[in-house]
């Protein structure tokens, strides 16, 4: 191990040290301060004679007399199946008071890209029990589907509901031996939010099948850049070596990106949009693309990253770049939230790109695609008419328009608003959809196959009965 | 990439490493030489030389690589291997076949430092001579053919940089791509395999004005905004507006001979979908698997950024090679924004002075160089071939005023603007008919008039006018409601609604609707026009608009798209519409 006492500059989270031997890019470093405290860091830039080190635990207290030790290897995650049920810090050390981790294997946290040729296309439906997702923006195994939210919105509740309820239909039939695991990577969330998650995990017994990585708001920002990589390395290990179906929840990606920006600024890089580094797309892609399925392997990695959009603006670089990488997005909406809709998912801008291949006969139900298309179109039309109502009033609108307005209201209260504790299976979700569609005249259902209309369309009267029955 | 027979120039030593950018000292290299970096031999390319310091962009992940490790120069620029075997193959950004990599690395993940030739060097191909001993051949001439796939006959060409000469030996038989198939009197030996530097356009004759459409099978594109064979088009749109589906539809259904599909910095699962689908889907012209005419280049967003920068060049060079054989090639690049961002990322690591929004100042030049490699060409061997380029653009926040979109629009002649609002209401393809344009319309009209219908341009103009009028009326409707409009305008809105729903919309996931031949595109339009004409007659005769729009036959218009036997369906429908409307007065 090479040890130096050659620090020349300390700036923000970075330490610069002179070296006489070459040091590898991304290599791990230990810095020992004069009072014996040990900080960990990573080589960001390596030039002959000088290295830049980013220090995970912050640089305060480090002076020029500190010792710098290069570990000769890149950052590794200690992996074992026994990680399930453990709570770890943002850099992978146990913080639950349990025994140290006895790794079966240590793996580089900068995961290699999955060869697109070796991937298997995701098309297995995951039932989340949330109608707005299952019915309109279906999640499938191996997908990465972020939640776009804003400050003060209940995205955590939605993520917890998904983690709690997520199941795969074939699992219910008992045809699949693979187990389900949840990996939770927290980056810069408050202690209170963390407690909320931990309480829910403990209450529902989910902790046993979870691995939790906690980087809290007062933990060093730089550590946040390794937390998701630790989490995803663990996820890949459990999925592709141990056959688990892994659901990875990463919250909050906005904090992760802030940390990237901080490091970029400390390195005096040329900033891109809003000061975020120009390589942020590549960096985010290296995280998000670690979701998927691989041919010949049982397990899968499904990602639900959560991000809070600054100012609810989805053109902000973080949601924007995320949207270009992920396979869709779920929008949590402020207006719906203030109306008390739970979960307040706005389906119009939401999207699941992998939906079309994960639904239909044999997967969910034959009418799924048509029903979802028709509801989208009808709800969009109802939404448009609401603007008009504000100007001319309801009376000025035609009968047809009024039906669409009612549809939009019913859609929000009957379909989307189900509460955070209700678990609806896909059949139930689609039946509710048909109840709503049956309030529209049959001729308006131009996106649904005629045979399906015959089979499921209820007509006006039957619906009113069911509506009162609810 | 095979570098077997190249002379190694002076090697160097790594001086610094910063992500994909590595500098080396003591390296004797020319600009754009390919080098092998570090103990693991990672592939890279020289992008800057300053004094003794050479800057290299590395096509693989550089974690753990440190100063002091060696850099080996191949002395050659980045080239692609051309020859039979390019089709029906899936490459990464530097033309390494992904299936071979998987086998060699014995892992589902992409390891480092593994190299593989772009075409199979062992496989034997059935070579049939096209020239005889004693014939004189020149650069670009076809000397023989090879059945490359069930669809495509590969033409073995005299390399463009050859002197040519008299054929002294040629025979039919089975050969590998490295064996000599033709000997010339100059002593030159011609093999099936050629190498060509990717950043250099292959030589061709004059560019001609394209007059034939590249039929896409998509109504809004063929009908309103057609692209020519040899044309260029851009598809900009915010995320979720359907860029990739639109690109894939073009790759599946366009009537090109060869398709080169570049997944540049896009999603892994999407590429997998293409890889799984294409071998199973039939080519609409021949019925053979689509892959038999396709080459895929898959450089997903998490694969190294430098290879993302080079993948569009790899793709266009392959396209040029097939153009030289006289084929019509369609190249889809999804997405050129990722390519531009890769340039930006490398430029910023080089600490170059940034231009607009951090993009390098040479962005516009690189984009136009790329699109200019498209066109309808007279080849140097006397044949004609074309390359049509369709580039997707992913503007941040869907804002078309950003540099990549703007610089692209200055070059391309066809603009298919995708619209988030349309996508939200599931109007697909979400090509906005007000913002999009095609400058090929007029030059392609004669073709459509000759091959589809005499009044093609006229009927289209009627549709454009109706949609324009709807746009204006909608603004009024937003203020006062539909019922406040006069009856004829209400009827126009209704007609425009059918244009949108039955003609512009097309379901890419429906077996029948996914492909629409030009005849069907035309007939749907005339059906709606029949309704329009009959309805206005009825209105003039005093029939209230509610009764006109309430006739039984109308909802059937929206189901034309999914009809396989569309001609009979539409004939009947037209008759029914006319009969039902005439009954009203």
Explain what you see.
The complex is a heterodimer of chains A (about 475) and B (about 575). Chain A is an alpha/beta fold and about 475 residues long. Chain A has 3 domains: about 1-75, Elongation Factor Tu (Ef-tu), domain 3; about 75-355, Rossmann fold; about 370-470, no CATH class. Chain A has 15 helices and 21 strands. Chain A has helices at about 130-135, 155-165, 170-175, 190-205, 225-240, 255-265, 280-290, 315-325, 335-340, 355-360, 370-390, 400-415, 425-435, 450-455, 460-470, and strands at about 1-5, 5-10, 15-20, 25-30, 40-45, 50-55, 65-75, 75-80, 85-90, 105-110, 120, 125, 140, 145-150, 180-190, 210-215, 245-250, 290-295, 300-310, 330, 345-350. In chain A, the strands form 4 sheets. In chain A, strands 9, 11, 14, 15, 16, 17, 18, 19, 20 and 21 form a 10-stranded mixed beta sheet that branches. In chain A, helix 11 crosses helix 13. With about 575 residues, chain B is an alpha+beta fold. In chain B, the strands form 5 sheets. In chain B, strands 8, 18, 19, 20, 21, 22, 23, 24, 25 and 26 form a 10-stranded mixed beta sheet that branches. A 6-stranded antiparallel beta barrel of chain B has the order 1-2-5-4-3-6. A 4-stranded antiparallel beta sheet of chain B has the order 12-11-9-14, with no helix packed on it. In chain B, helix 7 packs across helix 8 and helix 12 (about 485-505) runs antiparallel to helix 13. The N and C termini of chain B lie far apart (about 75 Å).
Brief digest:
The complex is a heterodimer of chains A (470) and B (585). Chain A is α/β, with parallel strands linked by helices and 470 residues long.
User: Helix/strand/pairing class of chain A, anyone?
Assistant: alpha/beta
- Overall geometry of chain B comes to globular
Fraction in beta strands of chain B: 15-25%
- CATH topology heading of the largest domain in chain A: Rossmann fold
Largest interchain contact: A-B, 86 and 79 residues
- CATH class category name of the largest domain in chain A: Alpha Beta
Poorly predicted segments of chain B:
1-8
For the residues shown, what is the average pLDDT of chain B?
A: 90
Uncertain runs of chain A are: 461-470
Number of strands of chain A: 21
**Helical coverage of chain A, percent range:** 25-40%
The largest sheet of chain B is: 10 strands, mixed
Q: Could you state the oligomeric state of the chains shown?
A: heterodimer
Give the number of helices of chain B: 15
What is the CATH architecture descriptor of the largest domain in chain A?
3-Layer(aba) Sandwich
Strand content of chain A: 15-25%
**What can be said about the biggest beta sheet of chain A?**
10 strands, mixed
How many domains of chain A, as an integer?
3
Rounded radius of gyration of chain B (Å): 27 Å
Family (chain A): Belongs to the ATPase alpha/beta chains family.
GO molecular function (chain A): ATP binding; proton-transporting ATP synthase activity, rotational mechanism
Domain ATPase F1/V1/A1 complex alpha/beta subunit N-terminal (chain A): 7-72
Keywords (chain A): ATP synthesis, Cell membrane, Hydrogen ion transport, Ion transport, Membrane, Transport
